[in-house]
Design a protein that fits this description.
- With 190 residues, the chain is mostly helical.
- The protein has one domain: Cobalamin adenosyltransferase-like (Hypothetical Protein Ta1238, Chain: A).
- Helices cover 54% and strands 5% of the residues.
- The protein has five helices and four strands.
- β1 and β2 form a beta hairpin.
- α3 packs parallel to α5.
- The longest helix has 24 residues.
- The chain is elongated, with a radius of gyration of 19 Å.
- The relative contact order is 0.16.
């Protein structure tokens, strides 16, 4: 169980932070930056929820926010070290749930004939922003996986999450009715 009695500890004043294994790393370390970016995506999802996404999306996104804390815990505890506890890891079941939710939400939408601009309503724009931050987190996780172990389910989860956020943005835009579509070359003039 997590217990936060004191918010500041002063242990990071030297520019380092602790991992779930007890190891300390510089705050600019790729692993730290990666789970920091996951946290950033989570915060943007919170902004979208605060902008008003409707009850159905709100419930789904609350579950996603909780999953993102799981993902942060997964990334903050490098694999391969003996620990006195079972580390929290993203599971295939969480990925499967995202896929089912994507399929369910997308089934309500008409097919696209162009790319969607990150616009429409405030909640949709925030979800598009969360999608782009999620994509950045994914790129960082893939880079991290070049030198350290990263769970396969964690990589799959973050990849599916950006898809879910795209579809959720369309749903937030009144099931795609207020999507703003890209018009190639529109501003080039005559």
């Amino acid at each position: 169980m997590v217990r936060l009695n004191k918010i500041y500890t002063r242990t990071g004043d030297d520019g380092s932070t602790g991992l779930g294994t007890g190891e300390r790393r510089k705050k600019f370390d790729l692993r730290i930056a990666t789970y920091g970016t996951v946290d950033e995506a989570n915060a943007v999802i919170g902004c979208a929820r605060a902008a008003g996404v409707g009850e159905r999306l709100d419930t789904l996104l609350q579950r996603v926010q909780n999953d993102l804390f799981d993902l942060g815990a997964d990334l903050a505890t490098p694999e391969g070290k003996a620990l006195p506890y079972e580390p929290l890891r993203i599971t295939s079941g969480q990925v499967d749930r995202l896929e089912a939710e994507i399929d369910d939400l997308n089934g309500r939408l008409s097919p696209l004939k162009s790319f969607v601009l990150p616009a429409g309503g405030m909640a949709a724009a925030q979800l598009h922003l969360a999608r782009t931050v999620c994509r950045r987190a994914e790129r960082m996780m893939v880079e991290l996986a070049e030198t350290e172990r990263v769970g396969e389910a964690a990589l799959r989860y973050v990849n599916r999450l950006s898809d879910l956020l795209f579809v959720a943005a369309r749903v937030a835009n009144r099931d795609g009715e207020t999507d703003v579509l890209w018009v190639p070359g529109q501003s080039r003039g005559s």
